[in-house]
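Suppose a classmate hands you a notebook page containing two proteins, each written out with its sequence and a corresponding row of structure tokens. How would you begin to make sense of it? This section walks through that situation. The first entry is reproduced here exactly as it would appear on such a page.
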Amino acid sequence: MARAPLSLKARAIGLLAQREHSRLELRRKLLGIARRSRAAAAADAGTDEEAAQDADQAGENAVDALLDALAAEGYLDETRFVESRLHVRAGRFGAQRIQQELAQHGLKLDAEQQAALRATELERAREVWLKRFGPEPARDAAEQARQTRFLLARGFSPELVRRLLRP
């Protein structure tokens, strides 16, 4: 016996139970779920493309209303998302990379979080560097360039990388 498909709200709560999501990210996921379910229903019913476009607009409105309700009920909290992303990423990445990831979600760090992240950046960069390359300094220019590229790709600032790798 087939199970009835989960409602959009149940799917949203399930996604939020796995990890924190930004509003933008959750909206994108829910719109995809809604479109797939409408496409399956339209294929079964044999409806035309104009009706599908109307259904897409109605689906977007429904998803936006659902996101508003989830935020009002405390399930969706962008402050919690920022703190969660900061906690997960801070041990492996620099401030620039973390800020870039948050910008992709339409969010940014507040001044206090930025200051705390910058204050610990040298120690975090040193830990990442030691874990990857060990305590031995680079022997030649090519190795130092490789280590520099690695740390820059992790989002650490060029000035900080120079200070860390200075012989």
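The notebook's second entry, a different protein, reads as follows.
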Amino acid sequence: MLKIYLPMVISLCVVSTSASAHGPVFSPGPETVFKGGYEFHTDIHREKSGNEQEDEIGTEVAYGITADWLVGIGAHYSFLKEEGERNDGFGNLELSTKYRFWRNDMLAAQESLALLGDITLDTARDHPDPAPSEGATDAQIGLAYGYESLKWQRWASARYRYNGENDEAVDRGDQVFVDAAVGYRPKPPEYYAVDTMWLLELNSEFTQRDEQAGINFRNSGGTELFLSPGFFVTYRNAALKGGVQIPVYSDLNGQQDASDYRFNLVAEWHF
């Protein structure tokens, strides 16, 4: 019996300690890094809606205070193109944390829950103009669940984002994000071999209307739903993941351009 289960347990340990266990592309997972470990990732992100296209290059460094508690800092640079005009600039600085408060180890499987939070500081004074977030400090809190086995992974998360009042005294609408994802690994992972997983996410966004002096902005807020196929490729302590968000439902208030698509490509290293 031990000879049957031992390879499965070893394989799960490989998954749990490598870069392969760090969540889907467009939503958070509960995974952390080891105590004293660092996670570095850089990403390329694009959003296209109507005549507006925004590209971002971002980077983030996170540190494992314990095996269950992660803190990080990140920033990005934006390239905004709207109606043929181009505005580029640095985005706001973001501080983040994640605390995994529950973990259940099973035979060749593991599940866990984590609290997450982040604060977006008003540091980007040269951000593309006009910048709705200029002068505002935003905060987000959420809960993430993950289940991991040798072949299947699944995640679920819910987040609430408070968007602060900007320099023009506009109270930007708060947002709620609800996500679910599944991952399929065609063959069991090996630490010294490339590990590939295919992902499919369902991402939903609910945004309140902006308001100023108690008056709602008609052309703001609404609901969008995305179906997001993606991939996750790892080799030892390095990973590459990417995907495309495809809008499947949109109910935006007033006259707003619905999302055409969103794209994300992320490279990660753990050390």
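A careful reader of the second entry would note: The chain has a mean pLDDT of 88.
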